[in-house]
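Obj: model holo form, ligand = adenosine-5'-triphosphate.
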Amino acid sequence: MITVRVPAKVNVQLGVGGLRADGFHDLANVFFAVGLADEVTATPGDGVTLTCTGPDAVSVPLDGSNLAARAARLLAEHHGLADPGVHLHIAKAIPVAGGMAGGSADGAAALVACDALWGLDTPFEVLLELAAELGSDVPFALLGGVALGRGRGEILEALPVSGTFHWVFAVADGGLSTPAVFRECDRLREEDGTGSSLADVPTPDPDPALLAALATGDPVALAAALANDLQAAAVSLRPSLADTLHAGTEAGALAALVSGSGPTCAFLAKDADAARAIAVALTASGTCRTAHATYGPVPGATIGTPTP
Ligand code: ATP
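Output (holo structure tokens):
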């Protein structure tokens, strides 16, 4: 039996360029791995089968479309295994369709878990390539820490970071579809006259002030530099997120932003005590389903022992 713990991500910068001919957007994406984590346990099985537990388990597909199952099949195919056998159990803590790349995390965890269960010893660079085939956010879940993602987000460069930052995540009821949020971003850009094509919106660059704040471990400077080009689109599709963001700021957060494509909202706190107080205030505010205090950066998908 192999258990892999894998982190959720928050995008501390999500710069969205114009729409490319292939339907994707060029991104300047600074990923940050946080302590909110799923655990994927692989045991020997017949074919590829799945189970899932956790508050959002009913929303997780248990068929071949699940990213953990797709990852297992892709790894088997890469090694020419004709008859791969594994049962994957996902203990899900990352909100589903929450903008924290939970499905991608499970895909990365399944790659690592099946690689160990089947004794394949796949080089890390090859796992990263397989991860990129599965989805734009999957390679980062393998890498963890803090990284700059270019292209669709899948071309990664680890970034220097000092110390620990304290975060709170407010989980909403229900999810938002990532493609729908990108479409809304394009629509809002057309509406305000900016235009949504590559000619109209140049490929964004990482913000030097943000990179410096990460490198020096300065939460106040990081708070000032947090930026998400998808935030307006997520709030447009889910106007109640404005109340959640406001409640966290009122409770003392240094900054508030929508996590990726939402609807999870992320709050940066000055320290662990402040994060705990903000989580309590957010839960009591009635503007979210629940709120978790956590920290980061943390490592990517890692083999360990299951949490009891
Ligand atoms: P991202 O931030 O990468 O856009 P997200 O966090 O908003 O993603 P996910 O939790 O990854 O969203 O789920 C998006 C959709 O992917 C779900 O609605 C579900 O249908 C599908 N899915 C496939 N595999 C999984 C999985 N292992 N866990 C959760 N959802 C999965």
